[in-house]
Amino acid sequence: MNINVHDIGLIITVTGIGLGVWIAKRKFNRTNESGVERFQSFTSMVVATTLDDVLYRGALVLIISGLFLMIFC
Predict the structure, then answer these.
(1) Which tens digits make up the pLDDT trace of 4-30?
(2) What's CA 57's distance to the chain center, in Å?
(3) Is the distance from CB of 38 to CB of 31 less than 8 angstroms?
(4) 30: which DSSP letter?
């Protein structure tokens, strides 16, 4: 079984999309009926939002790099 660059790009892109969906689900699960995010404390809010931001940027990097591999390599 040969795995070429296009397959790796596809795997990276799908992983980035999956990570983005997981981040959106985390944010959705924190919201109440009014759509306001609820946290146990200020510290948990800072940690959760920082983690979501870092993961979101990582997902974008994965998606862009995967698409780059599929298109240009």
Answers:
(1) 899 999 999 999 999 999 999 999 999
(2) 7
(3) yes
(4) T
